[in-house]
Design brief:
This is Prolyl 4-hydroxylase alpha subunit domain-containing protein. The protein is α+β, with helices and mostly antiparallel strands. The chain has one domain: q2cbj1_9rhob like domain (Jelly Rolls, Sandwich). Strand 1 and strand 2 form a beta hairpin. The protein is globular and about 50 Å long. Helix content is 18%, strand content 30%.
């Protein structure tokens, strides 16, 4: 009998970890691979040799959700920064594409993504926006900003529901996302077109935008009516009542404002939040210009 018990020891040791995971409520741990080589053409790496001064920025942060972390930021971009981004992006737009095979191939797919994209030159005002995005995230170690991209959506333009985080393979991926609205929302005619007749985004903003909100259909929130200044409310600006939890939200494209969200759970599992499934809803009138600020790096 003792011999049989001894024989069971290595078997129990072999299966102990899988069995413990099966009956454990803890998520499986991420199998982390060495950091991939950084592609400096795609990342907005900091340069300590540059000497520039950024103007003081004043923005207000509202916590929309804690898990996942979703922040709504008022006045993330100043009017002058918006004008500058519109101006320097104008000659650089090209049709947007979608990515396949873990980034190895791309194609035009208007049914999925109908917009134009411009990689924004890294001028001093743009670097100041980059610095602001880093600071809001806490200057996280082994996390880098990707090059900023302006996205222009004409009438009918949209981006179907998708995740930003992809697979997070090996413990590295797009850990955070900003959606910043540059031009196109209601009430922007006072300044959005100030850069002159060549500013197509500004002219569209003066005409007003219809549609084009950013939808998170799986994201839960309180339904408090005070959010109606920033999100679409079913019963008008003051008719939602307070405190009743709701599922699904559409953020209005208010120029200068932004939404930031974390894509991965900070539990060591490498799992992405399903609540970050989102879409750029179709523009029905005017032109919307947005700015994507993505952070790539080590998943916590």
């Amino acid at each position: 009998m003792f011999t049989y018990l001894l024989a069971l020891v290595p078997i129990l040791l072999f299966f102990s970890d899988p069995i413990s995971q099966l009956f454990s409520s803890s998520p499986p741990k991420l199998r982390r691979l060495p950091r991939p080589q950084l592609n400096e053409e795609l990342l907005a790496l900091e340069d300590a040799t540059l000497n520039y001064t950024c103007p003081d920025s004043s923005y207000t942060v509202h916590v929309f959700s804690r898990a996942p972390l979703v922040l709504y930021i008022e006045n993330f971009l100043s009017a002058s920064e918006r004008h500058h981004i519109l101006e320097i992006s104008e000659p650089l737009y090209a049709p947007s594409t979608v990515t396949h095979d873990a980034g190895r191939s791309t194609e035009r797919a208007p049914a999925v993504r109908d917009s134009e994209v411009a990689v924004v030159p890294r001028t001093v005002p743009v670097r100041c926006v980059e610095d602001r995005a880093r600071a809001l995230q806490g200057w996280r170690a082994q996390v880098w900003l990707e090059r900023l991209r302006a996205q222009r959506y004409r009438a009918g333009g949209h981006y179907a529901h998708h995740f930003d985080w992809s697979s997070g393979r090996g413990g590295w991926g797009r850990v955070g996302s900003f959606m910043v609205w540059v031009a196109g929302g209601a009430g922007t005619g006072d300044d959005a077109g100030a850069e002159g007749e060549g500013n197509e985004g500004g002219r569209a903003a003066e005409e007003g935008l219809e549609g084009g909100g950013t939808e998170f259909p799986l994201l839960r929130w309180t339904g408090d009516a005070r959010w109606c200044a920033f999100v679409e409310c079913e019963d008008g600006e003051n008719g939602m009542g307070g405190g009743e939890e709701r599922k699904g939200v559409v953020f209005k494209p208010v120029p200068g404002n932004a939404v930031y969200w974390e894509n991965f759970m900070a539990d060591g599992s490498g799992r992405g939040y399903e609540e970050t499934w989102h879409a750029g809803l179709p523009v029905t009138k005017g032109v919307k210009v947005g700015l994507n600020i993505w952070s790539w790096g080590r998943i916590e």
